[in-house]
């Protein structure tokens, strides 16, 4: 799947509208994912996964930072996230299906806080982008 | 996801054997698909799907020919299957999940016929290869 010129413009537009809120969105996306898909909690036995937990907030920041990095290097996400890709392949080994779940939750959070931004076209572009990020992070699994 | 040299070699080696029974394996894979996953029959309202039907054989041949093309051009599957990719994107629009199902059935048919060759490494190589083919065929959907 390839991001078109429009897709890239749309994605960059979303992230510039989100601006500094990206970190909160990351945390909220994780909270929603843990609530809606409890099986995802198994990857965080060492965390306090209750809503509002400091660890979830901190982790949300990390996730958001990676997404922002990918959006800023949208022409070569694979290179931008190469280290993260190695990390997921060799250490974290998160089952690929979970990337879709977190992506979904992130979309929901963006939609809730920026309803007018997420037109159908922008929604599709952001979804493609999140899929592309998921693909990069699982590309080295085997 | 990229195929290593060893994986490409494994795919090509097994293909040499598979090619001798390609039509039969193609037809059998489709039969297995329709039997285990009846919902896939909805894409073929115009077919006689009974065992041994001419249409099933014909279609099995088409599928295996395409796979053969991909094997021959294993360094550029995207180029080799560009037209098929467009066909699936603009006309057939088979839900991507079904490619996993058919790939699985093909693996079963090949494993059943070549049990000694289907080592874990060969299995993994073929699974990656069929995943690549499936990715190419669904990458122009949006």
TrEMBL record, chain A:
Name of the protein in its database record: Hemoglobin subunit alpha-A
Presence of the UniProt keyword Transcription in the record: no
Function field: Involved in oxygen transport from the lung to the various peripheral tissues.
Keyword vocabulary terms for this entry: Heme, Iron, Metal-binding, Oxygen transport, Transport
GO CC annotations, alphabetized: blood microparticle; haptoglobin-hemoglobin complex; hemoglobin complex
Heme among keywords: yes
Biological process, per Gene Ontology: hydrogen peroxide catabolic process
Protein family (similarity comment): Belongs to the globin family.
GO-annotated molecular function: haptoglobin binding; heme binding; iron ion binding; organic acid binding; oxygen binding; oxygen carrier activity; peroxidase activity
InterPro entries: Globin (IPR000971), Globin-like_sf (IPR009050), Globin/Proto (IPR012292), Hemoglobin_a-typ (IPR002338), Hemoglobin_oxygen_transport (IPR050056), Hemoglobin_pi (IPR002339)
Residues in Globin domain copies: 2-142
TM segment ranges: none
Pfam families: Globin (PF00042)
Automatic annotation (TrEMBL), chain B:
SUPFAM superfamilies: Globin-like
InterPro entries linked: Globin (IPR000971), Globin-like_sf (IPR009050), Globin/Proto (IPR012292), Hemoglobin_a-typ (IPR002338), Hemoglobin_oxygen_transport (IPR050056), Hemoglobin_pi (IPR002339)
GO cellular component, one term: hemoglobin complex
Keyword list, A-Z: Heme, Iron, Metal-binding, Oxygen transport, Transport
Any one GO molecular function term: haptoglobin binding
Pfam families xref list: Globin
Keyword Transmembrane helix: no
Biological process per Gene Ontology, one example term: negative regulation of transcription by RNA polymerase II
Residue ranges annotated for the Globin domain, each copy included: 2-142
Job of this protein: Involved in oxygen transport from the lung to the various peripheral tissues.
Protein family (similarity comment): Belongs to the globin family.
Subunit structure: Heterotetramer of two alpha-D chains and two beta chains.
Protein name: Hemoglobin subunit zeta
Species annotation: Strigops habroptila
Lineage start: Eukaryota, Metazoa, Chordata, Craniata, Vertebrata
Primary gene name: HBZ
